[in-house]
Amino acid sequence: MTATVNDRNGVDTATLFATLDAVKAAPQAAAFQFRAHNEWVNGTHSRGQIRDFFGVGEERAHERTFTFDADHPAVLVGRDNGPTPVEFVLHALAACLTAGLANIAAARGVRLTEVRSTVAGDIDLNGILGLDPSVRNGYQNITVTFTVRGDAPPEKLRALVEQSRARSAVFDVLTNGVPVTLEIDAG
Amino acid sequence: MTATVNDRNGVDTATLFATLDAVKAAPQAAAFQFRAHNEWVNGTHSRGQIRDFFGVGEERAHERTFTFDADHPAVLVGRDNGPTPVEFVLHALAACLTAGLANIAAARGVRLTEVRSTVAGDIDLNGILGLDPSVRNGYQNITVTFTVRGDAPPEKLRALVEQSRARSAVFDVLTNGVPVTLEIDAG
User: Fold this and answer.
1) Is the Cα dihedral A131, A70, B76, A113 positive or negative?
2) What is the ipTM of this complex?
3) Which residues, in sequence order, are CB contacts of B166 under 8 Å at separation 6+?
4) Which positions in chain A touch B98 (Cβ < 8 Å)?
């Protein structure tokens, strides 16, 4: 496969740099709002849709609507119609670090040949079950294991992953937290 | 549709309470590890798989492997092969609050007829683009809008949602943060 400078790692670096210049010239273009819609199906089973978002000054939509079921497995009194919500969080972290890695490698002229990762989260369900007030509801810790191969020395490849972490939106919200407001229409 | 006490809201409350009793008797059964696996495809496009997990003392697997693509839309220099990673986070939060709501309503004898939600997250991409060091990488705030209908007064329905928030694993990690360790195999 022959890649050009404009398509290193499948990243259109010319457009990437042009986008950076455009945002430098008009910083308000970088104000985005992402959204997920959800409808309860039955029991712990719900169905989410991701389609619309706001960015670069206007309402936008993905090229198609993405639909994802979530559920609990039988061992957690569900019917396993989809992953658990907490597993989607781990998926999001892996995908964020990977996308950033590809962009950063392309920008720095490194050709990647393989990127794989596993994200594991340890959770004590005594928290959400309300059985032990000293146990938190969420993960106690998360471990990301990355394998990265490419045409650069190991230390340079490692630095690319570190830089991706330093610029990861999901890593930021998971490690630093984010204010969440809940509005309820009950009736 | 005739529901029995054991299947209120599609929740098997007998099994739910039996599970609570089992964990009370053997708290270590509640130690779970969830995992997501990810493989880079091209550019900002990656593919995640959710299949194996540990819980109730042994390695387990979902009834099937769940596969999810993630990507950036064209406006963010991707090819829109899937939602962005940050959208998966919003989906996870909606699904977690909804599953908890159904369980809690069932346990309290409330029959739900409708649960819908939208989760919106505001993000300034000057952060991840590295253009403004005063801007964080992740969401600046997240707003959850819930619509809940059922056979209880509005205040009781509202209290169910509040209790779901109080016991939500995803709400906890997003609002309070979680330690994340990164291990890199580079070569």
Assistant:
1) positive
2) 0.96
3) none
4) 38, 40, 46, 70
